[in-house]
Amino acid sequence: MFEFAVRIINLSIFLRESRKEFVLSKQILRSGTSIGANIEEATGAVSKAEFKFKLSIAYKESRETHYWLRLLFRTKYIDNRMYKSLQFDCEELKKLLYASLKGLK
Description:
The protein is mostly helical. It has helices at residues 2-18, 24-43, 48-74, 80-103.
């Protein structure tokens, strides 16, 4: 999760500096780094309900990040190689979070 956040930060820097894109870069920075932050918060939860709540936020943020990645790719801000790599990692996070949440029910 941490390394994914680092990659998202680097993507945001690339978008701002190389593509002069300032709106979508901020959106993906927010959602992409929020995934790991919410997982960290979940590990410090004082109750099962709080743990589940924080994981559910992380899951929603992973879905939002996936959306921004698709949008950046379709609008040609990122190339296929960059998209596929980040999308794969994002998809893996989504699957992990979904399975974790499903196991908590």
